[in-house]
Design goal:
With about 450 residues, this protein is α/β, with parallel strands linked by helices. The protein has two domains: about 240 residues, DD-peptidase/beta-lactamase superfamily (Beta-lactamase), CATH 3.40.710; about 130 residues, D-Ala-D-Ala carboxypeptidase C, peptidase S13 (D-tyrosyl-trna(Tyr) Deacylase, Chain: A), CATH 3.50.80. It is about 35% helix and about 20% strand. It contains twelve helices and 16 strands. The chain is elongated and about 85 Å long.
Length: about 450
């Protein structure tokens, strides 16, 4: 009898413990907080509390349009009665408090007051991060410092041999200078220049002089499945088809080529019949405004070739040129790595501090700054910032280079604060799943700086 009573009591205990556990598990989400969640587990018929640390992702930022929605919301609560820059710093503090993206990502950031010559804010500013396309700003500053804004990219066409009746007994040479603006219209102009020699036959070859750079057609650390530019000194229409297009165009004009199209170095005594000259500022405008990878690589290899002085320029030569400026700025080049000229490479590593140093250097050199500033995208107006910061104090104020690759969103440039001070800044968001999260954060920071 006693044994039967014990069995019945044990069954009741199991039953009620089960009800308590189920109820606790059902109700626990109602009392969960952002910091922690309490759940109930049943062991030996008794409820046990287990602590679970939850991670929140800033999914709200994923669907928000930084240009038209909530980019200024986080700064509205700042105490504007505070003196500048304390009010700006409080706005920035509110932005950090109001976002959860840093539960799963990191940021390197620095804001510098160029007018007062002082640092206003920095966080992980020396952390090595992939810069994405803000590296293009570093390349542009290096090019303007080393080559100057009057530098020109040159493509030259010439011939050797002699013209007898309607035939050229010799070769046509096309020497590439890695001008990314070469298009079908230029191919037609070259064919017209050859036809202007009064010939209908070329008893020789079309020789492509590609000695301006090495034979690598892709950059170090590029992903094979990306939309990568072709690193050829004679790229035309963004493709490595210069020889084929010129041969086809000559045929269309009734000019017979008895030889073939091949690579060959242009002799020093060749007779020039066509030359295309493109100002570096034209190339830089698209490099920065539209974040064009091909155009930025073209400028990188102008640096690498040292203004066409060095033959067979390499990415290493370009890196060395950038490193010389890094040393001039007081930094140790070996602490960073410049793998390419566009920011596509997985191997690029810089810091927000280094990017700000380049922006400071450019600002204090009029010949660099005027060109750089004119080429940077304008918030809410043009370039890669045309769809961002459409309202607020940052609109038509921030001029900055954007950067986006998988996991990275970055922004580096200039703005003017409400008190008239000119600021420069670098923000590199790393480890983000959605690019919009990084962009929204950057736009909010820009609004905070400009108010």
């Amino acid at each position: 009898m006693v044994l039967l009573q014990r069995i019945r009591m044990k069954r009741k205990k199991i039953f009620y413990c089960g009800i308590i556990a189920a109820a606790a598990m059902a109700l626990s989400p109602l009392y969960a907080t952002r910091e922690n969640t309490w759940t109930i587990a049943k062991t030996d018929y008794a409820p046990t509390e287990i602590y679970v640390d939850t991670v929140d992702v800033d999914t709200m930022d994923v669907v928000a349009d930084a240009g038209e929605t909530n980019e200024t919301d986080a700064v509205e609560t700042a105490n504007d009665s505070l003196p500048w820059p304390q009010n700006m710093l409080e706005r920035i503090d509110n932005i950090f408090k109001g976002t959860t993206i840093f539960n799963t990502s990191a940021v390197g950031m620095k804001i510098y007051d160029l007018t007062a010559d002082s640092t206003l804010f920095e966080l992980n500013e020396r952390q090595l991060l992939r810069p994405a396309s803000t590296l293009k700003m570093i390349v542009a500053v290096t090019a303007l410092d080393r080559l100057g804004s009057d530098y020109k990219l040159t493509t030259r066409v010439a011939y050797t041999g002699r013209i007898d009746s309607l035939a050229l007994d010799g070769n046509i040479y096309c020497k590439g200078g890695f001008d990314p603006t070469l298009a079908n219209s230029d191919i037609s102009n070259i064919a017209d220049s050859i036809a202007a020699l009064g010939i209908d036959t070329i008893k020789g070859d079309i020789c492509l002089d590609l000695t301006m750079k090495d034979a690598d057609r892709m950059g170090e650390g590029w992903c094979w499945d990306d939309d990568n530019p072709v690193l050829s000194p004679l790229v035309v229409g963004r493709k490595d088809e210069f020889g084929d297009r010129l041969t086809r165009r000559l045929r269309q004009k009734g000019i017979v080529l008895t030889g073939r199209c091949r690579e060959g170095n242009m002799p020093g005594n060749a007779n020039t019949i066509y030359k295309k000259v493109t100002p570096i500022t034209t190339v830089m405008h698209r490099q920065l405004k539209r974040s064009d990878n091909l155009y930025s690589e073209a400028i990188f290899y102008q640096i690498a070739s040292d203004g066409m002085i060095r033959s067979r320029a390499t990415a290493k030569n370009g890196r060395q040129a950038v490193n010389r400026l890094i040393s001039k700025l007081g930094f140790k080049p070996s602490a960073y790595y410049i793998a390419d000229g566009s920011g596509l490479s997985l191997y690029n590593y810089v810091s927000a501090e280094l990017e700000v140093a380049f922006l400071k250097y450019a600002y204090h050199d009029k010949r660099i700054f005027e060109t750089l500033y004119d080429c940077l995208p304008i918030a809410g107006v043009d370039g890669s910032l045309d769809e961002r910061m459409h309202r607020g104090a940052a609109h038509d104020n921030v001029r900055a280079k954007t950067g986006t690759v998988t996991g990275i969103s970055s922004l580096a440039g200039y703005c003017t604060a409400a008190n008239g001070h000119v600021l420069c800044f670098s923000i590199i968001n790393s480890g983000i799943r959605y690019k919009s999260s990084g962009r929204n954060f950057q736009d909010k920071i820009c609004q905070a700086m400009c108010r």
